[in-house]
Design goal:
The chain is mostly helical. 60% of the residues lie in helices and 1% in strands. The chain has a two-stranded antiparallel sheet.
Length: 388
């Protein structure tokens, strides 16, 4: 059970694997098995909450006090890395406010250190993703304001990108958040982001534009007035496939709104689409399979704009043989090793989700965090780089 007063993680892992490795029929658990397992899980929950309280206390401590104790920005980054792991569980994400950690975390969005601003935004993004309760708590704590500031004008492109990712997660399926974003000239900031040379920043901006237009077609007029459609047409020829697909998806949303006249310069768009069709027609089989979404977007956009199928459809390149009946291979191990996905907590309302998460899992319990968290100030998780 316990070793030296602590939780026996090795024993818990061995017990879990022995009882759920899928190699033999499940056996009936004894009362002792159940009692031991429940005690282990309860101890882990208490341990995580206690650790989150400790992290919250450190985050609430003034910088000068931390510096006097020899705490460095790298130490703080490691601590935020650990907190990030804990809040992958939606229950722990919602508990962060209860233990006094949400407001101090938002304070790090104003840190003088770019890597801490970026990491804080990354943690916030995870906390609010598909989580209406935490979305409301962050909005009530005025968390959108520093995120908008960093998105608009941070000197670090990584911090700007992370802030944009957090904003996207915060306002998704959050009407007050979307309204606040509009009132804060969010679309103008998105236009500026599209002018960046950073493809990740461009892609996140395009995906957010696509989502907002899907949610409210009336915004097409705002986007048109700002000249964003011209930028999207240009980016539809990007060398980055993800940027191309995001731009084409946004243009398709604009094309569906005939009133806005967003795609008045159809000749330029037509030239871009014809160029993409020529490239697609020259692709190998492997390249065609990788470009499945782009093939379908180009054809849909052509049909929406010109009321006729594209030449891709005539050549049988929109839907390749076998794609109509494509099914995923059976998931043999998934039920035993399920990742901590936020899509468990909130059902998708449509297919336009901008967060990169898997599908919903109805009535699934929250994922359990197994294994001891890294201690504060440890050398683990020191990767300060950007990640999706």
């Amino acid at each position: 059970m316990a070793k030296d007063g602590g939780l026996d993680w090795d024993g818990l892992l061995k017990w879990s694997l022995a009882n759920s490795d899928g190699t033999q029929p499940a056996r009936q658990l004894t009362d002792e098995d159940r009692r031991w397992f429940m005690e282990a899980m309860q101890a882990q929950t208490v341990d995580v909450v206690r650790r989150m309280k400790e992290i919250s206390l450190v985050m609430s401590t003034p910088d000068n006090v931390l510096q006097s104790q020899g705490v460095t920005p790298d130490d703080i980054h490691n601590m935020l890395d650990e907190l990030h792991e804990h809040v992958e569980s939606i229950d722990m994400a919602n508990d962060l406010h209860s233990v006094g950690g949400l407001v101090p975390l938002l304070g790090y969005l104003r840190s003088p250190h770019a890597n801490l601003r970026a990491k804080a935004a990354d943690v916030v993004s995870t906390i609010v993703q598909n989580n209406p309760k935490s979305q409301q708590l962050v909005m009530e704590a005025n968390g959108l304001d520093p995120l908008l500031t960093n998105f608009n004008s941070d000197s670090s492109i990584t911090s700007r990108t992370k802030a944009l990712g957090a904003i996207s997660s915060l306002i998704q399926h959050n009407k007050p958040g979307i309204t606040a974003f509009r009132l804060a000239s969010g679309y103008a900031a998105l236009k500026d982001a599209l002018s960046s040379d950073d493809v990740r920043f461009q892609r996140k901006a395009l995906n957010l534009i696509k989502y907002l237009l899907h949610e409210n077609s009336a915004d097409c007029s705002i986007v048109t007035e700002l000249g964003i459609p011209r930028q999207m047409v240009h980016l539809a020829s990007s060398a980055d496939s993800d940027v191309r697909e995001a731009a084409l998806g946004g243009l398709l949303e604009l094309a569906k709104d005939k009133k806005s006249g967003a795609l008045a310069d159809e000749e330029k768009l037509k030239s871009v689409l014809q160029s993409r069709i020529e490239v697609i027609c020259e692709m190998s089989q492997d390249q065609l399979e990788a470009a499945r979404e782009e093939r379908q977007l180009v054809d849909s956009l052509w049909k929406e704009c010109y009321d006729a199928p594209s030449s891709l459809r005539e050549k049988g390149l929109v839907v390749l043989p076998g794609e109509e009946t494509f099914t995923q291979p059976p998931d043999v191990a998934g039920k035993f090793f399920e990742p901590a996905l936020r899509a468990w907590s909130t059902p998708k309302q449509d297919g336009s989700n901008i967060s990169e998460s898997a599908g919903e899992k109805k009535d699934a319990p929250p994922p359990l965090l197994l294994g001891p968290g890294s201690s504060y100030g440890s050398s683990a998780s020191q990767n300060n780089g950007d990640s999706d």
